[in-house]
């Protein structure tokens, strides 16, 4: 499975790999429980995005299992946990996974933090701190969080699959922009799962997207949103 230049997995690559694995499973009589990462066998950080976000590895196996069973659930519902969602229409907040007893109603455009996914039979529900909501993709749009973006200032800047300074896994070039999940010591953890220096001599905080969206009315189709948190930090959200 090939990665993008920044080490991320393109959606098309993810989907094609699922299809190939499904065909191999059918051919050799295997299922999702027979799938292993290089990391599981040799402890090599591969595929790096699946190590950085184990939930994506779980999602990959779930997609394989779904297609082996001919199940279309994940086409309609979130079957993995987004960090947050925004409501695409008015929805209810419910006491339990059956979604029978309403606590309150949320209008279109409401942002909610998701803690996990639970199931009512085979139907997934999203759990918040106050109750349960639908996981239907027609009703909510999921996001992962980030502290912002950075822009590379030099050519041939090393990146690593762990927070270290030796034996780089590759290089990025001047002008490239990356989404940052969090800062780890003197390094940034990128959305791709790789680490890069946080030194202002080599990278700079890239605020154009944040500045352009401040005060803008949220439109889910824009694919990006900025929230000014109460603690003074800015959170950048991106679609999943």
UniProtKB/TrEMBL annotation:
InterPro entries: Amidase/PGRP_sf, DUF5776. Gene3D superfamilies: Peptidoglycan recognition protein-like (3.40.80.10). Residues 77-140 form the DUF5776 domain. This is DUF5776 domain-containing protein. It comes from Kurthia populi.
